[in-house]
Amino acid sequence: MINITFDATWWLIVVFVFDIIVRVAAIIIVPRNRRPTAAMAWLLAIYFIPLIGVFLFLLIGNPRLPRKRRRQQHQINTYIQETSEHLDFGTHRPRAPEWFTSLVTMNRNLGAMPLAGDNTAHLISDYQTSLDTMADAIRTAKQYVHVEFYILQTDDATDNFFRALEEVAARGVTVRVLLDHWANRGKPYYRKTLKRLDAMGAQWHLMLPVQPFKGKYQRPDLRNHRKLLVIDGAEAFMGSQNVTDSTYNLPKNIRRGLHWVDLMTRLEGPVVASVNAVFLSDWYSETNEVLTDEIDLFNVGSGPGELDCQVVPSGPGFDGENNLRLFAGLLYAAQRRISVVSPYFVPDESLLLAITTACQRGVDVELFVSEEGDQAMVYHAQRSYYETLLRAGVTIRMYRKPYILHTKCFTIDDEVAVIGSSNMDMRSFGLNMEISLLVRGEEFVAEMREVEDIYRGLSRELTLEEWLKQPLRSTVLDNLARLTSALQ
Question: Is there a single domain that holds both residue 361 and residue 431?
């Protein structure tokens, strides 16, 4: 009989061999189909904190949706592409720049909707006015109301919105509701909201539910961040605002006196069908229910306006980072002026290069951000880019606290603008499902400029001299947050 005794030396050898295997496997597995910065961040985490790094990679290291959801997204993309390929969506504005036409083609090839003409789009910048305007529009519904919001809560601020849904549901209008699971669970009024939806007879579903015991699971921080509302296929709203109080009803926000500032746009015309298509695709992903048999999606007529609009959905269900490519393309196309509003500005290399190159080309570039952050990691990661931006010539305007400037939009020159749910950060580019609206029309840009003027008046300019006086501890925190922001 042979006795084998494992002393401390043997355990050290086993640990050493295991450590080598993990490191070699990480080099093979982690960089595959991953952005170099993200791969490097993961490798650093695995190398310096192996147990925690490996655990996090197994938990959130896959930035893709489950295979079934990707297949569903591909099916709906194909359907929309084929169904709308030869349709005439209104009359387009004449003399479109070549770069605009090529950008629209790129968006289309990546899964965006067709460019639609003859639209109207008007901005709503007041938080409560936006909620009440949506409620008034809901009350006009005759057939259906489609509601899709990242966060949806019944509270004092949104009571009118929910009463409008109850009123139309009571007279037989179909109310369909989608809300993100992870963003709402654990929030104040979550169960009260679901009970109210049940009581009114709404058909509601959680988006991207993390419910492993029900067979529903994917990377838990993949989120559906879209905000949209469609009434009868004739009118739509989209933008940055959630359906909740401007404090999000969170005690920590109330203690700090924080309020969110948002921007929504009200749409009429053929582009409404495109917004509706995004809702229908998300509904299909969550329910396997095809509503295109019930709703003639592309039976659209001429609209009341003259704006050209294209809806660009993005997220891990698409092969490319649709929003990032759109933003970068617009930054390179700008000739005179760029105004960007983004609460979370954490660019990847390509976007940082595009915005600093614009400055070097002589374009006047300004960036609106919040003076105070609500998410510490993102806030510090964003700050780590300020010196580079300021040295390049970007004017950074900080919206004064205690308000969180949550608007997501930007304008280039005098004719083209984008508004939607997408931040300019790596989470929105790679992990969140977003919706953006590309608009061509001087009248819409003029409206956007008026909002920018309001933001400018409520902001202060950050100078390079002021920034260089930041204490060392802030610089360390900023740089650490910048490294972790790449963990995708």
Answer: yes
